[in-house]
């Protein structure tokens, strides 16, 4: 993963928090050339990932078919 310039990816991959950080970077900034994002890992750790809003909604749409993180209100302000 060449885009990780401030720490060693091999060291990070040894711990759970490090693997989450690498997965977050892959989703937020895109995988390096030749790398793929593991869908099973993304689904398993979805609630633990700190993702940018745009990629998060896109991934939700691609994985589950609908955005899950939209803020829903009971009533819209224009409807009474």
Helix content: 40-55%
Categorize the overall geometry: globular
Tally of contiguous helical segments: 4
Unreliable spans are none
Distance between the termini: 52 Å
Count of the domains: 1
Strand content: under 5%
Rg, rounded, reads 16 Å
Order of helices and strands: HHHH
User: What is the strand tally?
Assistant: 0
- Structural class comes to mainly alpha
What does this structure look like?
The chain is mainly alpha-helical and 80 residues long. Helix content is 45%, strand content 0%. It has 4 helices and no strands. The chain is globular, with a radius of gyration of 16 Å.
Question: How are the elements arranged and paired?
Answer:
Elements: H1 9-12, H2 16-29, H3 39-44, H4 53-64
Briefly summarize what is shown.
The protein is mostly helical and about 80 residues long. It is built from four helices and no strands.
């Amino acid at each position: 993963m060449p885009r990780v310039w401030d720490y060693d990816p091999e060291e990070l991959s040894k711990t759970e928090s490090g693997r989450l950080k690498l997965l977050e970077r892959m989703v937020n900034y895109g995988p390096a050339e030749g790398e793929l994002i593991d869908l099973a890992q993304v689904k398993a750790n979805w609630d633990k990932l700190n993702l940018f809003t745009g990629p998060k909604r896109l991934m939700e749409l691609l994985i589950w078919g609908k955005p899950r993180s939209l803020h829903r209100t009971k009533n819209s302000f224009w409807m009474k």
